[in-house]
Write a structure and sequence with these properties.
By secondary structure, the protein is of the alpha/beta class. It has a single domain (6-229), classed as TIM Barrel, CATH 3.20.20. The chain has helices at 23-35, 55-69, 84-93, 114-127, 138-141, 147-156, 170-179, 194-200, 214-225, 229-247, 253-261, 278-294; strands at 6-10, 40-43, 75-78, 101-105, 131-136, 160-165, 185-188, 204-207. The protein has an eight-stranded parallel barrel, surrounded by seven helices. Helix 1 links the parallel strand 1 and strand 2. Helix 3 (84-93) packs parallel to helix 4 (114-127) and helix 10 runs antiparallel to helix 12.
């Protein structure tokens, strides 16, 4: 089985009340996820609040994550941006110890053409010491990577091995599945549509909510990958409300509120993000308790 099939988790970065990185909380989280049966870890993606972290903090978090994981699961590092040369330098400088791939978001804010997106990833593919996973999330980047561009990159570069697709467009998913190389992976980037995407042929999910509910979510994904959709549907449906609440006031405030309730780490986020409101916090706790009863 490919190491990036199943449930990957985009790790939150736990912070202490003073805003510093909470390494004990990160250790708790990594062990919680591994014990919860997930398949691989993604360090410092969007959910990790990477935009608010210094280069030194990122370097320390990547190294600590690799140390605590201790090769138990495949590890992916999130390294992206909208300045191609700077991203390339970050990738070349990255200590690959313990890591299997790099997840790199399509350039945001600049709104490049499709040819610009292609040339961006071409440049990265030619310098990267690790395999690359594309990441298309137009709701954040304000720029969609077309299926044609995705598949062109997949065919042209053997070290571009997958795409995390968060466009929400099944037309786009259909085209990628039809036109991609056989061994290129389509990975869901949206928790609520993981089941239908796997039914279409996706290899799994890079999940946010599985930070808090790894066992329920990874079991559901495994059932889907085994073709047991009838058994997977109840778990899929039971997680919908928790997922809605987790994103109701932005990511990762909701899932951090859940992790605080579970005693894994605190709920501190860095500005411009703010903690979940009291009303949302209570709703998340209630939903977690419902899910615990179903487990």
């Amino acid at each position: 089985m490919n190491k990036f099939q199943g449930t990957g988790v985009a790790l939150v970065t736990p912070f202490n009340a003073d805003g510093s990185v909470d390494y004990n909380g990160l250790k708790n989280l990594i062990n919680h996820l591994i014990e919860g049966g997930i398949d691989y870890l993604v360090s410092l993606g969007t959910t990790g609040e990477t935009a608010t972290m210094t280069k030194d903090e990122k370097k320390k978090v990547w190294a600590y994550t690799a140390e605590i994981n201790n090769n138990r699961l495949p590890l992916v590092a999130g390294i992206g941006g909208n300045h191609t040369l700077a991203v390339a330098e970050d990738i070349k400088a990255f200590d690959t110890t313990g890591y299997s791939a790099i997840l790199s978001v399509s350039p945001y804010y600049n709104k490049p053409t499709q040819e610009g997106i292609y040339q961006h990833y071409k440049y990265l593919a030619e310098v990267s010491p690790l395999d690359l996973i594309l990441y298309n999330v137009p709701g954040r980047t304000m720029s969609n990577m077309s299926p044609e561009t995705t598949c062109r990159l997949a065919h042209d570069f053997k070290n571009i091995i997958a795409t995390k697709e968060a466009s929400g467009s099944f037309d786009q998913f259909n085209q990628i599945m039809r036109d991609k190389p056989e061994d290129f992976l389509l990975i869901s980037g949206d928790d609520p549509i993981t089941l239908p995407m796997i039914a279409l042929g996706a290899s799994g999910i890079i999940s946010v909510v599985a930070n808090a509910i790894p066992r329920q979510f990874s079991d559901m994904v495994r059932q889907c990958l085994n073709g047991d959709f009838k058994d997977a549907v109840p778990a899929h449906l039971s997680s919908i409300e928790f997922t809605r609440l987790a994103f109701a006031e932005g990511n990762p405030a909701g899932v951090k509120a859940a992790l605080k309730h579970l005693g894994i780490c605190g709920d501190t986020v860095r500005l411009p993000l703010i903690k979940a409101s009291s009303a949302l916090d209570h709703a998340i706790i209630n939903e977690l308790e419902k899910l615990a009863q179903l487990a």
